[in-house]
Amino acid sequence: MDPGVESEVAREYRHLLRTGSADWQETAHRHALLALGPWVRARLLAELRALLLTGTRLGPDDVHAIARLLVLAERRRPRTLLDGLSPDLLDRLAAAVVASPTGGSLGVGLDLWDGTDPPEQPEEPVARDLHQRWHAQRATPGYEGDAAAFFAAPPPPSRPAGG
Fold it and tell me: What pLDDT does 3 receive?
């Protein structure tokens, strides 16, 4: 959705997402999700699963987890929700969040806000996991490759007493 043609409630919702702290945003989303009802939550969760490729273990009644998922997705990559959700579902979510008690208090400063989105942050490369030893097992033939890759090194030989 182009910021020049977005509705007033979508602009208020975007303001809340850009200026509010994460814990206040989660609280506003929890209030909104409870107000939307289980059918809308189920539809929202289905779209979030397709959009974010996560949340498969969540159900429509996991309001706290869905709220956290919504907030983290938009904070990590701005406009993920705004551009990814279907427009009617986004409008319902935005209206419920803005109308929530917490959302109303987070609307302070909307008249002064210039409407800009934060710049997109480059993703950090994923660090290699050096704790897995499966590569040592597969690369070494014989006993050392089968089981020894999972055991600690044998203790050093003991020295004889008196020598």
Answer: 47
